[in-house]
Amino acid sequence: MNKYTPNEIEKKWQDYWDEHETFKAENDSDKEKFYALVEFPYPSGQGLHVGHPRPYTALDIVSRMKRMQGLNVLYPMGWDAFGLPTENYAIKNKIHPAIVTKNNIEHFKKQLKSIGFSFDWSREINTTDPEYYKWTQWIFLQLFKHGLAYKKEMPINWCPSCKVGLSNEEVVGGNCERCGEEVVRRVKSQWMLKITEYADRLIEDLDDLDFIDRVVTQQKNWIGKSEGASIFFSLKDHKEKLEVFTTRPDTIYGATYMVISPEHPLIQKYKDEIENYDELNSYKEEVEKKSDFERTELSKEKTGVEIKGLKAINPLTEKEIPIWISDYVLMSYGTGAIMAVPAHDDRDYEFAKKFNLDIVPVIEGSNVSESANTDTSTGKMINSGILDGLEVKKAISTMIDYLVEHNLGEKKINYKLRDWVFSRQRYWGEPIPIVHCEECGYVPLSEEDLPLLLPEVENYEPTDSGESPLSKMTDWVNTTCPKCGKPAKRETDTMPQWAGSSWYFLRYTDPHNNEALASKDALDYWMPVDWYNGGMEHTTLHLLYSRFWHKFLYDIGVVNTKEPYQKRTSHGMILGGNNEKMSKSRGNVVNPDDIVRDYGADTLRCYEMFIGDFEKPVPWSENGVKGCRRFLERVWNLQEIVVDGDKYSEDLLSEIHKSIKKVTNDYENLKSNTAIAQLMSLSNEFSDKGKITKEDFRAFLILLNPVAPHITEELWQVCDLGGVLNEMSWPEYNEELTIDNKIEIPVQFNGKVRFTIEINRDSLQDEVIKIAESNELFEKNVDGKNVVKKIYIPNKILNIVVK
Ligand code: ANZ
Ligand code: ZN
Per UniProt, where does ATP bind (predicted)? Predict the structure, then answer.
């Protein structure tokens, strides 16, 4: 027997698969399809990380199994290659970002190939390829033509270090998601996409999908649908109404003051009447430096200024109440104004305490100040005029009816979701195919002029004014208006990183199409993606954005499914050995190349699947890697005990059928860890027995193949098992043979379980009683009394009645 030499074997089979296009998916096929998708990587300069292979292996296992089950499987890979790190690297090292990208992709691809994933490489895509981004631009034009892309002066989140505008999603805890720098606000004219128009559908259509619960919850929370009412408060001595949004119209009798956002237009409008305008203005200037996150943090000390010279009237109590400005009310949510109910809202309570404002409880026993009960969702209304005595729920609907009837307000639904800021003032992104003409405004390029290529620039540095580097390219910027032919200027902002990934799964179905983003036939056949696995960090960004684009493409008849992905799962992170996130600075990074070199790709794959529950984060362990290598060594040695025989060994029959059932189900449910444990146990039985038939070994190798594709192919060949493994069919099991013949049943005495016995399934009553009586605990429990009854419920329980 030869030694197990993964480096030789693995290369050999990878070349074989390449040469035979083993994993090529067919577009014109009568077979049932299965589309498995993993998030395509950003080809960074660091190369592959051991975190990448975890999800890739998990769906590789599913893909390999499904192929052997007779399905036409599409399992593609590509590159999400526009983005800041590449641009920053290009700036620093004075290399064109396209070249940096090309080099990084080469490196990534080599690494991925060395791990033996069954990707269909003939469908590789790259978002920075003009043949690809032509269609990203095409989709943008459709959005524009349908009124879903518009330009707006927006206070945006600005990262002073990256010199780039960030979407809310890219601001984490008030800091830039990429570099960690504190984000400030800045007003810029930005391209926006109207994702809010799809808010309801993005929530409702989740019901028909097979997404894991935490993804569904996070998406719903992010969209943040809240139902309530708009209420109009009058300004004293004016016709003006101040509109607020509240989810609790029932608490209106407790509204003792109002708070408006420091940016609220009311202040400008009544500038002349307001006595302390300067004070308000300087407060506003302070506030503008803060992010929304900081402003609304619960624990923060409350600040604010009362507006002198303006008062509001509570429409129900008809009392005159003060109006304040405070940073905790955001201009970007609801109407930018609230009625403050300090007795039942934490922020209002702290604010009222600090500034000595009236606090009037309106729900019995659920005052914020009485910390014993702060649940305001139930209880009886008090101090509340027409609502007195009503339950909260009833009070809400009663108040809404009252407000509507008296023209004081209306039912209202609000969303936390904001429109998507779609411009970046950077070079390395898709150019936005729009021209600005003094006469015609924003004019789309004609579709024949796509792709609009990124021009070559000398310098990729963003300008200090925050304009894109493209703005310095006057030759490129100055153009003619596609509509009237007069001089016009090109848009110099580029698209954000999320653009290319918002539709890439469509391109995989037909990646070389020049006429359309993909052919109708290809889309009809392959969509939706049957199973998409990706990181939880992409739940509110990529996953939501791509669902939005897909729904739009559905509306305009480009795709035939409402949703892009039928099923969504997510993996836990692989941490460093010290349980911390792997990072260069912590010095705990493991390079997959080293593991492949020292132990082999099959060991890496096996270890990443055996390491723990797929959904949970888990620390890396070199010992665990060694354990998996030892397992594969034992598998390698099994070739010594294989003898001729085209049937399963009689005494392994049950164990093999059980393994087929368990492994098949486990793979299907992302439980490869327990599947591998089952195969370890089966291989032990094989070696204990000392002799197995070829058929025994065939079943075992096929089951292990999705996890360890190289060693299993090699053993198949070495043992002369016929053909090549990947062309075999997945083994079937016989349910009857998987059922354990031995079962345990409890024995009760006067209704209490005293011990259990092991019996053969379907034994006769007499045999069962005999076994029970022979147990030493039987006489002890009879305890000298008379046995008056013995009741046996087959395969379930034996009841003994003593008196
Ligand atoms: C009165 C009230 C009484 C409120 C009470 C809450 C509890 P969600 O669920 O997040 O939609 N609010 C409205 N607009 C706001 C803004 N621009 N900035 C800050 N807060 C704002 O929350 C809705 C509630 O948040 C609204 O209902 C309003 O306070 C506040 F016992 O009105 B409520
Ligand atoms: Zn024009």
Answer: 584
Q: Give the Å distance between the CA of 780 and the centre of ligand 1.
A: 69
Ligand 1 atom 14 nearest Cα: 334
Please enumerate in sequence order all residues whose Cβ is within 8 A of that of 265, keeping only pairs 6 or more positions apart, or say none.
Answer: none
* Ligand 2 geometric centre to CA of 240 (Å): 40
In whole angstroms, what is the distance from residue 416 CA to residue 224 CA?
5
Residue labelled with tokens 């969303």: 415
Tell me the CATH class for 226-414: alpha beta
Which ligand has its closest atom nearest to the C-alpha of 484? 2
pLDDT at 445: 97
DSSP string, 682-727: HHHHHHHH--EEHHHHHHHHHHHTTTSHHHHHHHHHHTT-SS-GGG
Atom of ligand 1 nearest to the CA of 251: 3
- What's the CA gap between 226 and 414, in Å, rounded? 5
Q: Which of 243, 260, 294, 333 to mutate to test the pocket of ligand 1 (most atoms within 8 A of CB)?
A: 333
Which residues define the annotated binding site for ATP?
A: 584
Between CA 386 and CA 240, with CA 236 as vertex, the angle to 5 degrees is 95
What is the tens place of the pLDDT at every residue in 680-700? Answer: 999 999 999 999 999 999 999
Q: Give pLDDT tens digits for 249-283.
A: 999 999 999 999 999 999 999 999 999 999 999 99
Q: Give residue for tokens 């653009």.
A: 499
Q: What angle do CA 716, 718, 721 make, to 5 degrees?
A: 45
Contact between 446 and 252 (Cβ < 8 Å): no
Q: Residues, the chain, total?
A: 803
Q: Are 262 and 325 in contact (CB under 8 A)?
A: yes
Which residues' Cβ are closer than 6 Å to ligand 1? 226, 245-248, 251, 328-330, 333-334, 336, 338-339, 341, 344-345, 376, 414
Looking at the chain, the domain(s) classified CATH 3.90.740.10 span 226-414
Angle (CA) 507 508 509, round 5°: 90
User: Is the pLDDT confidence value at 372 over 50?
Assistant: no
Contacts of 376 (CB under 8 A, 6+ apart): 248, 251, 344, 363, 366, 392
In the chain, CATH 3.10.20.590 sits at: 740-802
- Beta-bridge partner residues of 241: 234
- φ, ψ for residue 500 (rounded to 5)? -60, -30
3-state secondary structure of 762: coil
Return phi, psi of residue 412, to 5°.
Answer: -150, 140
Helix (H) / strand (E) element for 184: namely: strand 184-193
- Ligand 2 centroid to Cα of residue 479, in Å, is 11
pLDDT band at 787 (very low <50, low <70, confident <90, very high): very high
Mean pLDDT of the chain: 93
pLDDT at 370: 56
Q: HSE on the CB side for 622, CA within 13 Å?
A: 9
Helix or strand or coil: residue 754? strand
How far is the centre of ligand 2, averaged over its atoms, from the C-alpha of 148 (Å)? 21
184-207 tens-digit pLDDT:
878 888 999 999 999 999 999 999
Q: Among residues 632, 627, 609, 607, which one has the least CA distance to residue 714? A: 632
Contacts of 777 (CB under 8 A, 6+ apart): 754, 755
Centre a 10 Å sphere on the Cβ of residue 308 and count the other Cβ atoms it contains. Answer: 15
From the alpha carbon of 329, which atom of ligand 1 is closest?
18
Architecture field, domain 740-802: Roll (3.10)
Identify the DSSP state of 248.
-
480 pairs with which residues across the strands?
487
Nearest ligand to the C-alpha atom of residue 339: 1
134: tokens are 């032509």
Give the pTM. 0.86
Backbone torsion region of residue 596, taken as left when φ is above 0, otherwise alpha when ψ lies between -120 and 50, otherwise beta: alpha
pLDDT digits (tens, 9 = 90+) for 537-581: 999 999 999 999 999 999 999 999 999 999 999 999 999 988 888
